[in-house]
Inverse folding.
């Protein structure tokens, strides 16, 4: 194998592939990238057997071939080079030589035949949407995905393709986030649905990798029997569908709460962060006290002290005290794009449901279960 290509172009693709590669693995080939040069292109691929990413760069290919290289070290070398053009050669074995200007590196590779075969998703495109919309949807729910490995059916987000748009939901049992994007749209944010599909569970890692993409490309989503594919121009990310039954989340979303205070998001978020400084590591809870005078946020810790802060609030209901985890509340307030939020409440024992008041074209809500403070 022998190729020449632009360093910056290669570096952009290598940076995206790093997130896929398994750093700690008992299977050495999974810490490697596959380089396959032919037909004027250098194809690159990485996989951890659950999530895979393939892409390519334009290149001059005097001699076609393929090899697997250690991902982290290969990326570090290319990033350290200063010349704009890079030459890569592979000898009769698997030794890889990189040369740029006066710099020359020689590293050991592995046989390309040992690299896992990437899954192919043959299904028809189910939906097309802008990368911006997809990233916004992921950002509004990913914080609610469970990190407990024993609850594997909650280790991803439910993704539904419906006739009137898309829906994404995540929960860890203590909170739930739901976002919807309607079909249609303008200015590059259009969502085109080509047919409704049952919901599928997308693993957290695949969502994290999609958040790392940027650009103005359209994402084409396809579903196979066991895998999903997200195609973005020359890049395609595939992931295994998480098995398991997602909870009946509609039952968790209260629709009859009669107390609906409205707050300015920024001051509310900052006040929660400040008061939370005096909560304990084990008992993370702040008390929200709603009254005609506004909202008072407080926290008390026998080892540290106490904190209170008053926040302006549009509320005309009876007094209500409610304990919430400030981290959960803060994650919701960070994800909201509107300048104001509405909390729908019932009593101290019932869940809090948060909504943006205006300024967010995606339907969004977050349910946070109460706690004793």
């Amino acid at each position: 194998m022998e190729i020449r290509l632009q360093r910056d172009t290669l570096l952009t693709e290598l940076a995206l592939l790093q997130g896929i590669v398994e750093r700690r693995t008992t299977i050495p080939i999974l810490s490697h990238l596959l380089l396959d040069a032919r037909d004027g292109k250098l194809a690159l691929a990485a996989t951890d057997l659950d999530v895979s990413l393939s892409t390519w760069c334009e290149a001059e290919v005097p001699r076609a071939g393929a090899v697997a290289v250690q991902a982290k070290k290969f990326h570090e070398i290319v990033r350290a080079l200063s010349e704009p053009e890079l030459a890569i050669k592979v000898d009769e074995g698997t030794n890889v030589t990189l040369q740029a200007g006066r710099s020359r590196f020689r590293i050991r590779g592995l046989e390309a035949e040992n690299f896992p075969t990437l899954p192919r998703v043959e299904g028809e495109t189910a939906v097309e949407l802008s990368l911006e919309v997809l990233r916004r949807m992921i950002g509004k729910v990913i914080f609610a995905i469970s990190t407990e490995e024993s609850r594997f059916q909650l280790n991803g987000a439910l993704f539904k393709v419906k006739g009137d748009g898309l829906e994404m939901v995540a929960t860890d049992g203590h909170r739930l986030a739901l976002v919807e994007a309607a079909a249609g749209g303008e200015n590059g944010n259009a969502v085109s649905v080509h047919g409704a599909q049952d919901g599928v569970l997308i693993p957290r890692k695949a969502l994290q990798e999609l958040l790392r993409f940027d650009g103005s490309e359209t994402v084409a989503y396809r579903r196979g029997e066991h895998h999903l594919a997200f195609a973005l121009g020359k890049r395609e990310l595939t992931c295994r569908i998480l098995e398991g039954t997602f909870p009946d989340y509609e039952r968790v979303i209260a629709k009859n709460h009669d107390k609906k205070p409205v707050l300015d998001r920024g001051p509310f978020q900052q006040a929660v962060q400040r008061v939370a400084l005096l909560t304990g590591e084990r008992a993370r809870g702040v008390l929200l006290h709603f009254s005609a005078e506004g909202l008072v946020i407080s926290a008390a810790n026998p080892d540290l002290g106490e904190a209170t802060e008053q926040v302006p609030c549009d509320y005309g209901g009876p007094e209500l005290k409610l304990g919430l985890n400030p981290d959960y509340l803060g994650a919701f307030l960070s994800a909201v794009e509107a300048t104001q939020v509405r909390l729908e409440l019932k009593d101290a024992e019932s869940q809090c449901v948060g909504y943006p008041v205006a300024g967010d074209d995606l339907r969004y809500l977050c349910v946070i279960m109460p706690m004793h403070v």
